[in-house]
Structures are given as C-alpha cells and as structure tokens.
Design goal:
Elements lengths: L1 H6 L3 E6 L8 H13 L5 E6 L1 H4 L6 H17 L8 E4 L5 H10 L4 H5 L2 H9 L6 H15 L5 E3 L5 H18 L7 E3 L34 H9 L16 H14 L3 H7 L5 H27 L2 H30 L6
Parallel strand pairs: 1-2, 2-3, 4-5
Bound molecules: tryptophanyl-5'AMP (TYM).
Length: 338
C-alpha cells in the first residue's frame, strides 16, 4: 500500500558526544539547533553519545557531569521530550550489541579511510585503541537500530553516515532487507563553522586555543572578546570571497544568529569596518545563546527531572531498538534465548 508508506513520517536520528565540558558554537549551529527545528516534520530520536566519548580517555566524574550537561543542552536547544525521543546512548545496550555484529560486516580497509580516525589517531598517538578505529560501526548501529531515514549532522560527520549506509547495504545484500538506508542531512548554512583563530580549520571542542572556539556556555564578555580577536584578512570589506575564510565564517555565524541572508549582511555592513562587524557578531551570538545558557543552568539544578527524561527516553528508544536487534540476531543465525 504505497499511499500508507508515503504518509509515514521520516525517522531522524542524531547524536552528540559529551566529551569536553560543553558544546561549541559549531555544534549548536551545525547540529542541535537544527534538530529542534525538525521535530514537527519528522519522528526524531536524539542521543548523548557517551559510548563514543570513551574512544578518547575521559575522567569518569567529568564524563558523568558532561553527559547530564549534554542532555540539558539538547533540551535547552528546544528539543521537546514529549515530541522526540531523547536519551543517553549507554542506557540502551542494544547499541553496543548491534555494534559488535556490524563490526563483523565492516572492513578494515574502509575503516582505515575514515578521516576522523586519521585525525584523532594523529592527535592521540599514545592511545590509538580499537574503539577509535571501529567507532563508525557503533555509529552505524546507532542509526540502523532505529531504521532512520535521515541523519542531521555537520559536514565533518558525512563520511560516517555514508559508511553506515554502506554497511547497511552490505548486510541487506547478504540477508535480505533488514535496514533502511540512511542519508546524511546537512544544513545549507553553517554545516562547517570554522575556528576563529585559524579559519581554515573547523571549530572543534578539543582545540587547545580558547580563542579559537566559542563555547555555548561562555560568558558574554568572553564571547565579545573572542570575536574581537577573530582572525580576518587585510581586505577590510565585509563581503564573501574565496580567499577570505575568516570573514566568510563570521558572515555565516552572523546570518544564522540574526536570521538574515548573507547578502543582507553584506549590505548592512557596506562601507563599515571589521571592528564594527566583529562587535555586531559578538552581540548577535550573545543574544542567540542567552536563553539557551540560562536554561542549561536551570536544568542542571534539576537532576531529578533530567533523570526522568533520560529514563523515559531510554525506555522508548529501547523498545524500538530491540525490534531491529532481534531481527538481525535471527538473520545471522543466533539461537534465541529459550
Ligand atoms: P560530535 O559530537 O563531534 O558533533 C556533534 C554534531 O556537531 C557537528 N559539528 C559541527 N557542525 C558545524 N560546524 C562545526 N565546527 C562542527 N563541529 C561539530 C557534527 O557534525 C555533529 O553533527 N560521531 C558523532 C556523534 C554521533 C552520531 C551518531 C551522529 C554518534 N552517533 C549517530 C549522528 C548519528 C560526533 O562525534 O559528533
């Protein structure tokens, strides 16, 4: 009955790691802000990907705290636990179980080509563990367990969604249709927010240079200072250009924060200097993040509420996940528990 199939809302799944003590403006613009916007049109699942975080060494107490902060951040960004399923990855053991199975259908060669693995193993040369290498199989499990159609991510995660699709296709080829093939869903604006200090590189949580990144919980004066110091160029004109990565990035940030198009931003600052523009960027970002930050602070004082959301979300997620897991176990030949 194709009409009924077409009426089905598409399923959306995404995740964010709770490593580092908070999210960056890149995570906010490229990911979680968009997740909130997708809730009415799609059936959405959003998770705090704490199992992914331990591929890099974490301090246990901090990871615990940051996991709660991650959950609070999703809610503060406008994700409504009544509309969407919000959960913590490790609360649904099916993720790790399916990841093991998918590991056996994921090739050494394809994992070796992952740019994130190459980057992270260069940065953590003393801890190139097997989890870091097989990370994409866990991410594939996250996505495939829920039969997700769309995976909203920033540009840097596109390759991981593509490998999830390849793994799903390989498994379906061997055992018949089991997984829906997911697609990356990348925002038209803000898919790659760049470092304020080195605008050729992406803004990253793990950047040691504090001036390179805006953290979502930064105080207004810190945000203003970081924008003031943002690296630009010597053209002195607020307009986009191929060799103007700093200004291109600031125009993107300002247009997302104000809802204006890049053309409108260029017109607004025609004839004005970078100083004025950087100040306006800082102010716009402060205003965009103010309600978010206040809400995270409130939610962090209410652990019971966060626990309640996490528990309800995990129960709903698990119910869906176990259906796929059971199907997969049967297909590969695991004996059901008598
Ligand atoms: P993570 O935690 O590194 O980042 C979370 C999301 O933020 C996006 N992002 C950015 N977007 C724009 N500009 C930037 N500078 C920027 N930096 C980060 C990322 O693209 C991502 O969408 N492996 C994932 C988490 C994950 C996941 C999943 C995602 C685990 N399981 C299943 C989707 C589906 C990660 O490490 O994202």
């Amino acid at each position: 009955m194709p009409e009924i199939a077409e009426q089905r809302k598409k399923i959306v799944l995404s995740g964010i790691q709770p490593s580092g003590n908070q999210f960056t403006l890149g995570n906010y613009i490229g990911a979680i802000r968009n997740w909130a916007l997708m809730q009415d049109e799609f059936d959405c699942l959003y998770m705090v990907a704490n199992e992914h975080s331990i591929t890099v060494r974490q301090e246990p107490a901090k990871l615990r705290e940051n996991t709660y902060r991650g959950l609070a951040s999703l809610l503060a960004a406008g994700i409504d636990p009544q509309k969407s399923i919000v959960f913590i990855q490790s609360h649904v053991p099916a993720h790790a179980e399916l990841a093991w199975i998918l590991n056996c259908y994921t090739m050494f060669g394809e994992l070796s080509r992952m740019t994130q693995f190459k980057d992270k193993s260069a940065k953590n040369a003393d801890n190139i563990n097997a989890g870091l290498f097989t990370y994409p199989a866990l991410m594939a499990a996250d996505i495939l367990l829920y039969q997700a159609d769309l995976v909203p991510v920033g540009a840097d995660q596109k390759q991981h969604v593509e490998i999830a699709r390849d793994i799903a296709g390989r498994f379906n080829g061997l055992y018949g249709n089991t997984f829906r093939l997911p697609e990356p869903y990348i925002p038209a604006v803000g898919a790659k927010i760049m470092s304020l200090a080195e605008p050729e590189r992406k803004m990253s949580k793990s950047d040691a240079n504090e001036n390179a990144k805006i953290l979502v919980m930064d105080k207004p004066e810190d945000i203003m200072r970081k924008f003031k110091r943002a690296v630009t160029d010597s053209y002195g004109e607020v307009s986009r250009g191929e060799d103007k990565p700093g200004i291109n990035n600031l125009i993107t940030i300002y247009s997302v924060a104000t809802g204006k198009t890049p053309e409108q931003v260029e017109a607004e600052f025609a004839g004005k200097g970078y100083g004025d523009f950087k100040k306006a960027c800082g102010e716009a970002v402060v205003e965009m993040l103010r309600p978010f930050r206040e809400q995270v602070e409130d939610l962090m004082k209410n652990r019971d509420y966060l626990d309640q959301v996490a528990k309800a979300g995990a129960d709903r997620a698990e119910h869906l996940a176990l259906r796929t897991l059971a199907k997969v176990q049967k297909k590969v030949g695991f004996v059901p528990k008598p």
